[in-house]
Amino acid sequence: MASQSRAALEVTDLKLAYRVRGRDRIAIRGVTFTINKGESYGLVGESGSGKSTVAYAVMRYLPDNAKITGGSIVLDGKDMLHMDGDDLRKLRATAASMVYQNPGTALNPTIRAGDQLIEAFVIAGVAKGEARERALAMLGRVQISDPQGVMGRYPHQLSGGMQQRVVIAMALASDPTLLILDEPTTGLDATVEAEVLDLIRNLRATFGTSVLFISHNLGVIARMCDRVGVLYAGRMVEEGPAWELLTNPRHPYTVGLLRCIPRWGLSKEVGPLDTIPGFPPGIGAAIKACVFADRCGLVQDICRAEEPGLDPVGEGHASRCHFSDIAQTLPRAERDMVKRPPVPETARAALSIKNLRRTMTQQGNSFQALAGVDLEIAAGEVFGLVGESGSGKTTLARSVIGLGVPDAGSEIDLEGKKLAPRVGQRSLDQVRAIQIVFQNPDASLNRRKSVRQILGRALTKLTGVRGERRSRRIVELSESVRLDAGLLDALPRQLSGGLKQRVGIARAFAGEPHLVICDEPTSALDVSVQAAILNLLVRLQRDRNLSYIFISHDLGVVRYISDRIGVLYLGRLMEVGPADVVFSAPHHPYTEALLSAAPSLDVREEHRIRLQGDIPSAAKPPSGCVFHTRCPRKLGAICEQQEPPLLEEEPGHFLKCHIPIEDLRRLQKPEAADQAG
Amino acid sequence: MSATIALGRQESAARLRRQAWVERLRLALRTPSLLIGVGVLLFWVILAIFAQNIAPHDPLAPDILHKLQPPSADHRFGTDGLGRDVLSRVIYGSRGILVAAPLATLLGTVVGTAIGLIAGYFRGLVEDVLMRITDAFLALPTIVTALLVLASVGGSTTTVILVIGLGFAPIIARTVRAAVLSEAQLEYVEAARLRRERAPYVMFVEILPNVMGPVLVEFTVRLGYAVFAIATLSFLGLGIPPPSPDWGLTISEQYTYLISNFWWPVLFPALAIASLVIAVNMFADGLSRVLER
């Protein structure tokens, strides 16, 4: 009866609190939005904004201590909040499905993928005999190659991309009105992510399903959604058509968020990234007026006195700001330009890697994680390393710092002196000279040690300072990473993600290193925090004129911080060159595909290059050029038989490809892509 | 939900630390099994410490004329086969076990934790050798091994502690090793190696504090078993020699009177053992719940 309504989902003034330590802490402070039938709606926000909580509330999958304190959720015409037991179960089975961030944990590891998919159909009401056929057909629709084979395999035998396809197939089994996607591609490689996003887009077109898409990645949202809502501290601060909102934001938070992102082609030479000062209000914080007032550069007295309404600022576009008309004049938080010191003409390379090979064994199979990498990194240079998972980025980094022993014949020299393979065999000076900033500060900081203990121990072991001098150095060190000295006695868990990573950076700098390896140092952080950390890393590098090896899967970030970039694929460098050269045509076909796959805020409808299938197993690398199995520009037999050498095609620009650079230049011209289009 | 608290400048770290402890304490106060366990344990500890002041009679003084008296105003738990006051013997009897059981468990925990840490941290050959030896010991039932050793060496409190303690070490080693395995993969361990820390420092200063939760829980669980095992050994006559008022020993001395319906010399020490074992187990259960949060 009521399901005649046009809306697939109507959330009205939703309020939700988590009961923590005997007190209700407000997490959602009144959120209203509507998803029309067939529409794709994106919810963006940083961690703690409440975007996932909203999604779980829609499904009523909430933890025991969560309490919906107000508002309504109407899914497909039915009131979700006044439903219990069987009705709720039935509605979940038919009206809405959810795809989670990590497909590895969403699938039961002990049941074959096919059986799980069949079960999803049976629950959706398909007869047992028919379910198997339907499951097979669905695997075909999510474009899994060899659906028969996949049916019989266990989840761990499938790659991440295939797992996520199976999960999507299960979600679609009930032909739901609403599909909730909670960061569905966050754990996937860029090329796989691009494929999965394409798939979701195509499926939406065929099934006409409404989508609630939750992501912290504005580029992904821009590509996937019709309309977007921006959540901040459990409040919708801006809502509007995706493209309009991202190009013409009218709330200072959205404006600031967009400025934090290292945009396409932006480099540190242009200036520091903008940041949003301060911290978001925690869950349960008392907020009287505008939720963003404390961090806003445009704040006036009225902002602290009364909360603005979500007022229209354009066609379907609304902003919760008293000053939405001047939101884009938000002053930049970072004004000081970091001047680059004159590059010293050091003849000697800071780090020189020759023929680096590493054979590893996994479950009895040995494979080459690194297959002969040659690399030189100059003093004061930031070398960016990109590549998908399994490409050998981390293996390379670990070999350099001495945590992974390369094969015999490999050679790593630091400032002209040979480095022993193990950190324990290196001299103290060499150990001090190379340090690392780890990806995840939660794992890299001992949770039982205070910041002071962590930094103090590093100083003692690496520089030998003690007593009064050490205390002074601890304070200096924390100041150099802009960590308030009042936080020195905090334990890591008492710090936010960005502050924790500052501690990790300070520790790496304790011994005044010459080369710092940054292994995805910002991938666990929100964009506004990421911007601040990147600025800090640039500043530290320039002040001390040291070298970085910067590993990241985020091409925008690598482009921003790096002077030179190397592209790794299956343990081989496919392309090396100055950052701007690598990022502009002509480039290696693999680089081209990587760049094309990255979700971008700047190109609306791109000509995308899609790579077929998954990365081949390093245990059985393809013959000839290792990329030939997925290469869209494959020449022919030569690619399958002969491995091309890494040649200097232009000064400083190395390519490992059979295609002559002039041909690549011609093929990769924008017009050429149009014709191919 | 993430437990991270974003720290503003105004909030001092020390205050937050205090809050975390208050929080843990509050959780403990809301865990009934922990409270009951602690209560009964404290009850026995106080009895043991102040036995002289609390016990109405000398636990060792025989009074053959008044043997096997049923519970009365003078002898609330009655008297045993030698006319000794059962209540006083139960009170004094707590002393031996409340010293021996924790010491044995402590010994087992220290040795087991060390083995587990070394095996879990070094992996490879060291791990294989240590864990195979541990497995071999695990295959022997603690009580039987203890019986053999005590029968050949002779019973005394020290040997009981040594035998039970070392018998527990392999079990604790397994638990600790499992915890260390996942802990040693975290990058803070690599960070320590990157500043050339020595292995003992990494194991005992970096890793150990992070596996103290499982170690504590294992300690309390083993404590319950220790009480039980020590009582069993004394019952079998291989523990503390008579005329000690030890509970297990008392039961074994007096149980023949059960046939003649003199139940009190046996029931009360048996209840004492049961209450202590259950209390320790409830404490262990409650503690693991509080620590797992």
Q: What is the C-alpha radius of gyration of chain B, as a whole number of Å?
A: 23 Å
Content-based structural category of chain A:
alpha/beta
The CATH H-level superfamily of chain B is MetI-like
- Within CATH, the superfamily of one domain in chain A carries the name P-loop containing nucleotide triphosphate hydrolases
C-alpha-based Rg of chain A, rounded:
26 Å
Annotated CATH architecture of one domain in chain A? 3-Layer(aba) Sandwich
Percent of sequence in beta strands of chain B:
under 5%
> In percent, how much strand structure appears in the residues of chain A?
15-25%
Describe this structure as you would to a colleague.
The complex is a heterodimer of chains A (677) and B (293). With 677 residues, chain A is an alpha/beta fold. Among the domains of chain A are: 251-329, no CATH class; 349-387 and 401-545, P-loop containing nucleotide triphosphate hydrolases (Rossmann fold), CATH 3.40.50; 584-676, no CATH class. Chain A has 25 helices and 24 strands. An eight-stranded mixed β-sheet of chain A has the order 6-7-8-3-9-10-12-11, sandwiched between helices. In chain A, a hairpin with a 2-residue loop joins strand 4 (66-75) and strand 5. In chain A, helix 5 (128-141) crosses helix 7 (160-172). Mean pLDDT of chain A is 88; it is low at 672-677. Chain B is an all-alpha fold and 293 residues long. Chain B has one domain (62-292): MetI-like (MetI-like fold, Orthogonal Bundle). Helix content of chain B is 71%, strand content 0%. Chain B contains twelve helices and no strands. In chain B, helix 4 (86-122) runs parallel beside helix 7 and helix 6 packs antiparallel against helix 7 (157-184). Chain B is globular and about 75 Å long. Classes of the chains: A alpha/beta (677), B mainly alpha (293).
